Amino acid sequence: MTQSPLPSFSLFPGRRPLLVSVPHAGRYVPPDIARTLAQGPERLPDTDHFVDRLYGFVREMGASLLVAHWSRWVVDLNRPPDNAPLYAGQATTGLVPHSRFDGAPIWRAGAEPKAAEIEHRLDQGWLPYHRALEGELKRLRDAFGHVVLWDGHSIRSRVPRLFDGVLPDLNLGTHSGASCAPALRQQVTKRLAALPGWTSVVDGRFRGGHITRHYGHPELCVHALQLELAQTTYLDETTPEPVWEPERAAPLMRDLRDLLEGVAEWRP
Predict the structure, then answer these.
(1) CB neighbours of residue 261 within 10 Å
(2) Residue 4 resides in a domain
(3) How far is CA 114 from the centre of its chain?
(4) What is the structure's pLDDT at 7?
(5) Torsion sign (Cα): 239, 96, 68, 192
(6) Cα–Cα distance, 85 to 188 (Å, whole number)
(7) How does strand 64-68 pair with strand 170-173?
(8) 94: pLDDT strictly greater than 70
(9) Which of the two residues, 75 and 161, has the higher pLDDT score?
(10) Is 62's pLDDT higher than 80?
(11) Would strands 170-173 and 222-230 be described as parallel, antiparallel, or unpaired?
(12) Has residue 44 been placed in a domain?
């Protein structure tokens, strides 16, 4: 992997005790890596399409926003550096995944990343993102006495390899209650259930990835939650390539903003 001209992330510091992380919306694949993809970099179906746009209001509300630019196929920022599985006994993807959500291979035969390449991607992409994440959490906690980390994701509503049936619209993960204060978990759970038109679940199939589990330590005044959105809530899943539709996304963005305003105002 050569030096990339595009940084792996952008950080927009805020002035409230809330940091929104968007690790999987990136679509950039460095050219030397793109040449090893089985089907080229034009379509990246496992991307959290447009989640950075969905949370674009975060900067307007004065909270911090951290957005990844590189594709999760280059290196997955929401996986632990030792590539330990997040869900024992269940299908998942790794730090540098070998197969797509649908099971198709990501890399050309014989071009799968080797150990040295994976280490390089960790150094160039994974570590900078996490250093920025850790530094911004510390800054906000020092300034306010506590901080909430909100990890924003999305996925197709039907992925048979990963889960049965249709995914609820809004999937909150709190590492089964371990990554945030019970009062915050209860507040967000109630607000999700009260939103008209959406289905929701708490700590279901998606209970939070590495970011939520690693940084969420309520005893240290760092509270972490993950929200996995079914992509049917804001785009047409039937099109070959997703298209951003502002009018379709507007209701979800409105509800997300109301939800996060409550999170930003919450105090332990």
Answers:
(1) 15
(2) no
(3) 25
(4) 86
(5) positive
(6) 27
(7) unpaired
(8) yes
(9) 75
(10) yes
(11) antiparallel
(12) yes
Q: What's the token pair of residue 201? A: 């679940």
pLDDT reported for residue 89: 66
Record the tokens describing residue 66, joined without a space: 């951290």
Asked whether residue 126 carries a pLDDT value surpassing 70, the answer given is yes
Q: What is the mean pLDDT of residues 52-76?
A: 98
Residue 96 domain boundaries: 9-265
| Residue 29: CATH number of its domain | 3.40.630.40
Output the six-digit token pair for 207: 């209970």
Closest Cα partner for 205 from 93, 48, 87?
87
Q: Say if residues 194 and 223 touch (Cβ distance below 8 Å).
A: no
Give how many domains the chain has, as a whole number.
1
User: Looking up tokens 């969420």, which residue turns up?
Assistant: 216
Give the pair of three-digit tokens for residue 267. Answer: 């105090």
Summarize pLDDT for 239-249 with one digit per residue, the tens. 888 999 999 99
User: In terms of residues, how long is the chain?
Assistant: 268
Q: Which two tokens stand for residue 41?
A: 């970099």
Helix (H) or strand (E) holding 93: none
Does residue 1 belong to any structural domain of this protein? Answer: no
3-state SS of 51-81 is HHHHCCHHHHCCCEEEEECECCCCCCCCCCC
Cβ-contact 234, 249 below 8 angstroms: yes
Residue 72 lies in a domain: yes
- pLDDT for 262: 98
Closest CA to 155 of 102, 217, 191, 107: 102
Query: In which region does residue 208 sit, left (phi positive, over 0), alpha (psi from -120 to 50) or beta (all else)?
Result: left
